[in-house]
Structure formats: structure tokens, C-alpha cells
Structures
1.
Amino acid sequence: MPRLIKKVSSDRLREMLEKRVEQGSTHIEQMEDVLAEMDTPKARQKNIAAEGLIEDANHHLEEIREDSLVDPVLLASVQKIEHYCIAAWGTGRVDGKAAGPGQSRESNGACAQRGKALR
């Protein structure tokens, strides 16, 4: 995401995306706490779906010939990524409910709400 942010011309969009990166870092910290609560290793698997969406965004940005189209195309690409993340957090929340009470359900629910606010 930081590489994509560098291409933005709108200060407002840049601020929103930077805020989203900060929220993502917070979410990772929360999930690490949840994993510790569950005595689960913190090893991260590669998320090929998210990587594919980011690669798609980069591909679209490379094809743009008019600077005025960069922000709208980037915004559309980020929305795709956010929708994927919201779906993943929702799935995590359901999994957390199945596992029983705890921080997982609360963390995923809060992250999903923050993601929805960026739409």
C-alpha cells in the first residue's frame, strides 16, 4: 500500500490511505494478541488473494496515460482490497464465535467496521 500511496495526487486521499495503513498495523497487533490468547503460533501465511489485488492495482496504474485518472483508478483498486479485507474479517469473526467468547470476535468486528467506514 505505501507504494500506491506515493502515486496519489489528492492530499485527502493520501491522508485516508495513510490512516488505513496505520489501522492495518493496529489490526495485525490485535490479531497477534488473539493468537497469543489462543496459544497459536504467529507464523503468517502468504495471502495470495490480497497480493493479487495489489498486483492488479499496480498493473492498472502502469497503464494510465493521463495523470487525472490516477486517483480514481487507485481509489477503485483500494476499494477492491478493502472489500476483500472486510469479507476476511467477517469470516474471522464467525470463526471466533465458533471458537467461543474472547478477543478474536471483538477484534475482527471492530476492524470490519473501520474498513466499512473507508468505503
Note: DSSP finds five helices and no strands in the chain.
2.
Amino acid sequence: MNALTVSLSDDAREFVESEATAGGFPSPDSYLQELIRAEQKRKAREKVEAMLLEALKEPATEMTKADWADLRRELDDRIEAQLLEGLNTPCEDVTPEWWDRFRAELRSRPVGEVAK
């Protein structure tokens, strides 16, 4: 990990240290890293929301089996990449083994079938 030095006023430094302690972070660095991750997620959500709103302006079309297969494949690829990198695991219970079982179950269903 690369280092970045940030100059803070005394008040800002005290605030960061206080918030880190109150939030149970092991260090002010950890607190700031979490703030940055939260901002990255917020911006990503904004981008997705803007894309969805833009898509709503277009005429609706029926999803085909190929569309569902493409979505399933993309989801599979994204989650697998995250698990392989050890990043952003949706929850602690989601292990690579769990994902293998989930993927096998998903692939065994006919395209377009929804779980009940």
C-alpha cells in the first residue's frame, strides 16, 4: 500500500482521532480508509442510479433467454473475480466453496427461472 501524507489542522486531527476511537477503528488511518471506501461506494451507487434513470427513458423491451444468460454470466464473473481477489465479499458466510455450490445450483436451473 502506498503512503499519502495529509496535513490537518489541530481541530481536524483531534476530530479524526476521536471518531476513530469512538468507531472502534484501530487507527485514524483505518477510519480514513473506511471513509474513502464509503465515498467510493456512494459514488458507484450514484452512477448506477443515473444509468438506471437513463435506461427508464428508453422504451421497455422484453427480456430474452439470451439476456438472462448474459446477466447470469456477468454476475458469475464479477462475484468470482471479487472472491478470487478477496475483495468486497458480500458477507462473512460467503466463501469460495459456498460460491461454487451457489453457481452450480444457478447453472442447473433453466434460463429465466426464478427461485420461489
Note: The radius of gyration is 21 Å.
3.
Amino acid sequence: MKTKEQELSSTKYIDISQLMSYVHCGRNSAMALGKEAGAMIKIGRLARYDREIIDEYLKKSRIPKHDVPEFQRPQKRTINPKVSYEERILEEIERIERETQAIRDILKESDYFSGGEE
């Protein structure tokens, strides 16, 4: 008796359930992949997918290793234990006020408040 892998490797045309297990994705994704690759063959109401075309499409779609960004864990925020909670809150308020003032300056320079009329 043949296993699923042996059956898939010996079959040129596969149905949607075989395509789903072949590419390890759901029905809608497998159907979209088959259509996008141009591997879909309609026989009456039946749809079959050319496994060789799927393989070629997947090879062309592969992202080179050097283009994939490495995962970098975000740096933890260090809190200075010598600074009190109130001082940290005041520093945060000052930072927000500086950013707010910078935004106000940008808006004053633009035509946003004047309505574009001079």
C-alpha cells in the first residue's frame, strides 16, 4: 500500500485536498496558489493542479536567505532605580510637551491653521 508521499510523487495532477496537504495550507490558500501559478486544469466540474508547475512556481517564489531579516529581540527598557517614580513621570511629561511643541511649530509653518489664505 502506498503512502500519501509516494502517491503524490507518482501523480502529475493532484486534486485540491492533495494540493492542500502538499503545500501545507488551507483550501482557499491552496486554490489561490494553484490559480496564481497557472497550474489549474478544469475537467468539466473537476479541478486538478499540475504538481510540476506548482513546484516550479514555489522555486521561483523562494526568498533568498540574505533577503530575510534576522529576528532581533527588542531591547528591554532599563529603569534607573535611583530615579524616583515621580521623576520618571515628570521626564515623560516633559518629553511629551517637547513633541507637542514641535508639532505645533510644524503646523504653524504650514497653511493648516490659516486655511491656505494669506
Note: The longest helix spans residues 85-109.
